[in-house]
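Bench log, entry 3. Co-assembly request; chain sequences pasted below exactly as received.
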Amino acid sequence: MTRTNWIGFYVFTKREFLRFFKVPHTTIFPVLVTVAFYMIIFGIAIGERINEVAGVPYLLFILPGLFAQMVIQGSYSNPSGSLFVARQWGNIHDILMSPISHTQMIIAYVISGVARGFFLGVGTIIIGMLFLRFEVHNWVILLLYSILVAILFALFGIIIGLWAKRWEQLNIFINFVVTPLTFLGGIFYTLDMVPKSVAIITQLNPIFYLVNGIRYGMIGISEVNVYSGLFFLLAFCLILYAIVYHMFEIGYNLKV
Amino acid sequence: MEDIVVINKLTKRYKKGVTALHDVNLKIKKGEIFGLLGPNGAGKTTLINCIASIAAITEGSILIDGNDVIKDYLEAKKLIGLSPQDMNFDIYFNIYDILVYQAGYYGIRKKYAIEKTEKMLKLFGLYDKKKKEVLSLSGGMKRKFSIAKAMIHEPKILILDEPTAALDVDARIDLWKYIRKINKEGVSIILTTHYIEEAEELADRVCIINKGRILKLENKDKIMDTLSENIISFFLDKPLSKKSILKSYNYSVTNNILNITTPRKEQNKVLKEVINLLDKNKVLYHNFEIREDSLENIFLRLIKNDKN
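Structure output for the full assembly:
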């Protein structure tokens, strides 16, 4: 029976993790600068004209949503970018030829995606702490939501990284799906702050539930049942994992 | 000799319907240097990509030292190192880190991975470039690095796809020495090349492939013996008048030079017969020479015949 290649798995995960530190000018700094601008514009400039939302200052209200957005962006971008570049430059063959199982490859991509998502998420919190102070309401819910959201979008990242044929296709998902959904996902508002039509659209938006789950864990405020959200998140993660595993098994855009 | 690669009824069809390999059967022996020759688009790279698990197999099977490349892919992959024709690059790390990671992928602990990396970089004259990224290396250095990467985990089978492309003459000869050295140490080599003299120089057996089918698979010396067509040239004093005396030979006459084409194994017999014949018919000549056939000419004839 073949012994599991744990060293290969560890080394590949480490390589994927260290990759985004090699290019911080594209993977880290611009994102955190954007967060700082969000804080200044939405939190201070506009937020000062808005009274408390759901019983907390506006800046504190938007912080969990910005955290979620950064976790999503980071966890998506790492595997999608890494896989796409490896396919373009051909070094994906180094991995495909090595005795690392498909499951290990997928987990390595997911772990590195989760790590980058958390790195940006924590960076967002640190920037937020420059403007306000708060105590985490429920660590367990916060961590469960954050990890599952990061896994979910890392898996999305793998799918898009395998599918994309051109660099701009990588950004289609972020620019035309994730960003609009996050803006309409209740990061900046509660349902009673917006017209009914927008509230309905918001409730149909899966990101709304993720943002509320994280907001509940972070500051104890949610407009939905956070426990059922966890269940759906887990189910989505399993479905996406099955899709990604199948793509690796058939060598979708990996093997010629 | 035991077989290290057994290919059974291998067919590879691409998505667009092009069949790159048709029902290929092939056995590569442990410890041999196996030359895979063919024109562009013959299916050589597809064949080695299937062996190395970077191309999906449509039908058939490949066993690497008894391990199926699909069912036992983890075991099979450990045994293979590939230096591909289209070299691939990791653009994020320097060549030292890439080799350490590459060794790690094959389950080699960091301490040994570092030892092996330093050894390979020194062996290929790349040690002083260890902090450089691959893209900054010259074409020849990239090729050497690609081979170092393929060898870092000490595979039993080394696949070299056009290994001396972009190498200068000295570097090519150095690489040939290295190939012979590791082959003596027990590594089986699969070599594809456009330089037929490279196969002639290195290979024990030669497989000529065209349009996804094997045209010839034989010991190199046997191919040379059985398929070589040497040319015996007689430099005549006068134009040949009685051509009919040579009707049983494959001959041509140009500018008072009589060329007789003969299989290498019949060369001495034919030479003797023609000398007698010319003497008997009082055809005078002042010199003769024998031109040896080359593997390249044999290869070209086989491909030409296949086209016809």
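The interface with chain B takes residues 2, 5-8, 10-12, 15, 19, 22-23, 85-86, 89-101, 250-251, 255-256 of chain A (CB under 8 Å). Residues 86 and 92 of chain A are 5 Å apart (CA to CA).
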